Structures are given as structure tokens and as C-alpha cells.
TrEMBL record, chains A, B:
It comes from the Bacteria. InterPro entries: Acyl-ACP_TE_C, Acyl-ACP_thioesterase_NHD, FATA/B, HotDog_dom_sf. It holds the Pfam family Acyl-ACP_TE. One of its GO terms (molecular function) is fatty acyl-[ACP] hydrolase activity. This is Acyl-[acyl-carrier-protein] thioesterase. It comes from Sodaliphilus pleomorphus. Belongs to the acyl-ACP thioesterase family. The keyword Lipid biosynthesis applies. Signal peptide: none annotated. Keywords: Fatty acid biosynthesis, Fatty acid metabolism, Hydrolase, Lipid biosynthesis, Lipid metabolism, Transit peptide.
Length: 248, 248
């Protein structure tokens, strides 16, 4: 049982019309933005957000995200994100989330893996001494199955070249998490999203990409309901993903 | 003097690290998102937001936006948007905004022109009978100079072809305002933004574009501090803009 409220953080939202996708629902890119936002808000609530780490020229970055949605919030609908930390080790912190509709019915779940990097060396930092993490581990589990191993797509059914632009890049001067996801989502046509929804997303951010870098986006959609993607430069993957679709 | 608080709406924000551009400031695309958001929140406060218009298969769309910023909010900084309606006629509603830092110092201003379209016919709707507008006209003026006439760029210094993708499109199934702005901003390299900021933006949305449409993005930057752009299909402009830069 949790006795400390600081272990759990909930934020409520309203899905505005301007935020919706063509299916009049919450876009998966907005789910990703909210994941980053509630993690930030939770850390801010402990007094250990951005401003604390940046003093040491460090910052949290997302390493892996797994999302499962039974349905997405619809236009003008209220929804909430609740987050807690399940586990951590020297290198990674595992943060879970639950997405509910306005009646508290669970409509989605999220598993995320975060690390702290040093902006100067671009390397991971030992987080085992961050007491605010160890003090806030929750015994609550996630209903989402852990992410499987994601492979580079070598037998692509479609390969597209893409050069990252100014608005793709963030405060770290590398490509933003949400922009990778947009690039991956844009490998499928509007018509597919009209017929199917992304029931499960697995994505791993493996190697940072800078503004102006050109990559290959490789897709294997031999199984249209279980598509694999990777964003690669030669033999190096910047990002790998799996999109599991369900008919609407 | 204003006596009715419903004529003025203020929303406070904190600029999180995940929202920042490579210059560690509020991106112009986020300014645009906030413009749409506070207008929506103000309309919701009157009880006449999205849900009211959609009953008649209608919705507000942005027609013109002019932004002037003396500086942009920086990472972890609080800022606010205040909005009011200055004027309206049968076809257009003119909504102004003021952007302040946490001490109330004005750091930017916005003029916007909105119209209501019928989603079935894609044509403008007579808004002169919407009493919630006439009841909420403010006598407060904008410090931002009105938008000048924007022309199609015919003598381009750079022309780029672009095909709109799934994540570029919104609930109306046409290209999202923010995505046009991203496309225009991406015509300039990161290095330009490191040295200069967009002091004034003028943008007009002229003709809707659909998912899968291919356009030409035309730029004239003969004057590097006063650049003109247009997003065109043949002799038709979908969007025209002017970016006035200042050295940092």
C-alpha cells in the first residue's frame, strides 16, 4: 500500500479540437508529449526538476517507451495521466503511467525508461545516489507487458531518406522524441489510420541525431498489424520501433 | 475602461525544458499553439467553444496571425497570454493578445483574424449574429502594427517541394496551422536562429491543403532580415508569410 502521496502524481487534461488528429482523437504524438510533461511535473513536485540537474549540466532523457491504448480520448473529452516510479538502478529509472477517462476508467498504460545524461560528455550519469528516486519507489505495477527486443529493419518493404530540420531539434540540440515518432507515423497513409488504431507502440531511442543529419527510415510491414521500423545511418540505429495496429 | 471580466482572459504557463528550441527559448511554433489554445479557452469560458459550433457542423479557423516579440520566454520561465477581441464583422473576428513575463512586463504582442467555416461546404459563415462576440468587444487596442499585404513569392532564392504527411493534418483533415509554420521555419538553417530571432512574423492562411498534397515552398531572402515566403500549388497560394529577423 502506498502511504506517501508524493509517489503518485495525476494531471487532468481536456482534449481540445485543435489538438486532435484526423480521426478526431488524441494523436499518439500528444500521448508522447503528455508522457514527458507529467514526468516533468512529478519531478518538479519533488523540487528536483530541470533546474536542479542543469546546475550540473545534466538532464533526463527518454530511452524507451511502451504505450498500450484500448481507445484514445476523443475531441472535447477529459482524461488524466497518473504516473509513478516502479524501479530504478544505476543507469535507468522505470516510470509507469495509467491513462483514464473522466470516469476513472483505464483506457491506456505506459512504461518508460529514463536516464540522466551529462550534456558535455553525452554519456549516462550514475543515478543511484539520487535520494528523491529511492524515496519515491511505488509498489504499484504496470499492466503493460515489458518492451521486447527491437531489431534493425534489414528487409525493408519501404525505405525513405529524411534530413532533420530546425523544428525537429530541441534544447539538447538533438532530434526531439516527438519528432522521431512523427517521422515513424508518417510512413503510413491517412487511410490506414482511418481503419486501424495503434493499440501498442514500442519505441527505443538508441543514438542521438543532430540537426541536418540525413537518415534512412526503414519499414517492414509484411504483417500489416505488426509493423517494425528503424531510423538508421548505415549500420547504426538512431531509433527502433514496433507499431501494433488493431482494426477499429 | 473595461468593466466586464469576460472580455479579457489570461492564462499562465511555465516553459518546460522539453518544450524549448535549440536556443533554449520558447519556439515560435509553441507561440502559435498557445495563441490557438488561449482563444479556445476564452471561448470555452463563455460556454461557446468547440462543442457549440460543431452542433451546426461549423468551427473557428485562423485566417491571419501577426506576432511581434521583443524576446522569447526562456527555459523554466513563467509567462502569460492575455487575450481580448478588438473588433468583428460579418466575416472576421479580430482577437489580440499580449505576452508577459512573470513580473507582468510585456515581451510580445499578437493580432489574429479568425473566421467560422462550415465543414460541409468549406465556406465562411456569417458571424454577425453571434451575440457572445458583440457582447465581449473590448476597447483595448493592440500595440502590434497591422499585417501588410503578403504577396506570392515569384522571384524565389530557394524553392523546395514538400508533400504533406499524416501528422501534418488535423481534425478538419487539412494541414494544421502549426505545421505550415514548421515548414516555413525549416527553410532557414539552425545557424541563422542561433544568431537572429524572429522579431515579427506575418502569416496568412489562404487556401486549405489536404494530406498527401504536394506544394512548392518559395523563399525570397535577398534581404536576410526581411524574408518573404509562400506555399504554393501553381498560381494558388495556400499560405504566405513574412519573417522579420533581428540580430540577437
Amino acid at each position: 500500500m502506498e502511504t506517501n502521496n508524493s509517489k503518485k502524481f495525476t494531471q487532468k487534461y481536456l482534449l481540445t479540437a485543435a489538438e486532435c488528429n484526423p480521426e478526431r482523437e488524441m494523436p499518439l504524438t500528444l500521448v508522447m508529449s503528455r508522457i514527458i510533461e507529467v514526468a516533468t511535473l512529478h519531478a518538479n513536485a519533488w523540487g528536483v526538476g530541470y533546474s536542479k540537474l542543469i546546475e550540473a549540466n545534466q538532464g533526463w532523457v527518454l530511452s524507451r517507451v511502451t504505450v498500450e491504448m484500448t481507445r484514445y480520448p476523443r475531441v472535447n473529452e477529459q482524461y488524466s495521466f497518473t504516473t509513478w516510479i516502479e524501479n530504478y538502478n544505476r543507469h535507468f529509472s522505470q516510470r509507469n503511467m495509467e491513462i483514464c477517462d473522466k470516469d476513472g476508467v483505464v483506457i491506456g498504460g505506459v512504461r518508460t525508461i529514463w536516464m540522466v545524461i551529462n550534456y558535455a560528455t553525452r554519456e549516462g550519469v550514475d543515478i543511484s545516489k539520487l535520494s528523491y528516486i529511492s524515496n519515491n519507489i511505488s509498489d504499484r505495477k504496470s499492466s503493460v507487458a515489458p518492451q521486447g527486443r527491437l531489431h534493425m529493419v534489414t528487409e525493408a518493404t519501404k525505405s525513405t531518406s529524411y534530413t532533420f530540420k530546425y523544428t525537429d531539434c530541441d534544447i539538447n540540440r538533438h532530434v526531439n522524441t516527438v519528432k522521431y515518432l512523427e517521422l515513424l507515423m508518417n510512413q503510413f497513409p491517412l487511410e490506414k489510420y482511418d481503419k486501424q488504431l495503434v493499440r501498442r507502440l514500442e519505441i527505443a531511442f538508441m543514438h542521438e541525431t543532430r540537426c541536418g543529419d540525413t537518415v534512412e527510415v526503414n519499414l517492414n510491414d509484411n504483417d500489416g498489424l505488426d509493423c517494425k521500423l528503424s531510423v538508421d545511418s548505415g549500420r547504426l540505429s538512431h531509433c527502433r520501433a514496433r507499431f501494433c495496429f488493431s482494426p477499429r
